[in-house]
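Our working data are protein records whose layout never changes between entries. Getting from the letters to the tokens is the skill we practise here. To make this concrete, we reproduce a full record directly below:
***
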Amino acid sequence: MDHMSLQKLAYTLEEAAEQSGFTVSTLRSQVATGKLSARKAGTESAIRHADLSAWLDTLPTIPAGGHTFGATLIGEVAPGSNAAQDPAPLKPTFRTPEEVAPGLGVSKSALRQFARQTGFHTRVGKRIKLHDEDVAQLVAWMRERQDKKDDWWTEPEKDHFA
């Protein structure tokens, strides 16, 4: 049997967070409220793959913020088209601030703060997700903000009495 095809039966909280894209604290709070099942082995928690999948299936499919998940993949094959002619890779159009921030030259926390200030983001649970349109709007907003910041100081005219 191919080693790559083996699937783990259960994950630690850290592994479940990595697999699902959520933070450990989000998963921990979901376990505490009983929305996500976890098993205990001493002090370690284990989340079965099936339980993680079932929990993910209970999450809402239409996020707050206006973007729908109807077209969540770039390169998604339109009905009636020939996928063999255009084997475009499937990529999520929603990205996290952690994925976007390095490309914009800002910190993750600053980008999260800007997204909250402007409303240019989509929330999935408590997580901020950025659609390509959100990123474009944030870039325009940051440029406008920088232009205003640069204009606040003007060099004083030469003092004729000095």
